[in-house]
Design goal:
Strand content: under 5%
Structural class: mainly alpha
Helix content: 40-55%
Mean pLDDT: 86
Number of helices: 3
Largest sheet: none
Low-confidence stretches: none
Length: about 70
């Protein structure tokens, strides 16, 4: 089992906090798939998402929030 370090995540995402947020969002996306469509693996979805981010398989785009006009 490979361990993903915070510095590896920070190299790919800019900082470790952003990397964890991106990986968590991707893990939730993976969780929406039916279990029979996902490849059988012993890893948790969050671990798979972090590995995808570190390996460069996961692309993301940051969007700025719009300010609500009150």
């Amino acid at each position: 089992m490979r361990i993903t370090t915070p510095s590896e995540v920070a190299q790919k995402a800019g900082n470790k906090y952003l990397g964890v947020l991106v990986a968590a969002k991707f893990a939730r996306y993976l969780n929406d798939f039916p279990k029979d469509q996902l490849a059988e693996s012993e890893e948790k979805l969050t671990t798979r998402a972090l590995d995808s981010l570190v390996e460069g398989d996961l692309n993301y785009k940051l969007l700025r929030r719009r300010r609500s006009e009150a």
